[in-house]
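Consider a typical record:
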Amino acid sequence: MALRYLSAKLAQQIDDELMSAAGAFSLDQLMELAGLACAQALAKAYGADKYPRVLVCCGPGNQGGDGLVAARHLSMFGYKPTIYMPKPGSKDIYQRLHTQCKNMSISTLPEDEQSLRTALKSSDVVLDAIFGFSFKGPIRAPFDAALPLLSASGLPIVSVDIPSGWDVEAGNEAGVGLNPDVLVSLTAPKEGVRLFRGQHFLGGRFVPRTLEEKFQLNLPAYPGCEQIVDITDSEVPQKL
């Protein structure tokens, strides 16, 4: 059976169940596993020998938290990540993840637009962890300045879960979102990325069999001990 694509409502429901008393996962656990999957996907697509300088762009929500975890793992993988946060998150978990990056001597850029312009000139690849599946337009400041700069940089972009600026169900219908080269869908791909045609990984090895069966996700087998599986050539299903 074909891999299921998720609506915003269904994606939120699965997240809620994962962190419910029945699912028993904590947000910290899910972020750690998601961020590790994103770091593995970037490493698979862009090796540290040719693309060592990674600009990790983090939004203020859980998506940004995934990016911070990925930055820490990329540093351990031999990359030289730099963090850019147009608007830093204020929650305790976000602050702790940022502290973990600081403890790895990962630098964080100032929040101004010029710092981003300068950093893009000395980066090899961008990890986009700005907006998640709960994003609803329009794109507001300071993100409305950051996204066009990322698009115009010419650098390869790896997006986390859904490209920033895309609607979770309508995709890049408004034409204002990023157009990444690589996408790392988490748990299961979202409705809005059906037309994505770059390299597509799935990272969600944490999904228990009970939830996979309940929501008929039809997830592919993950190879060996990998946290990701390449679904680039998977058949895109019709809407359920």
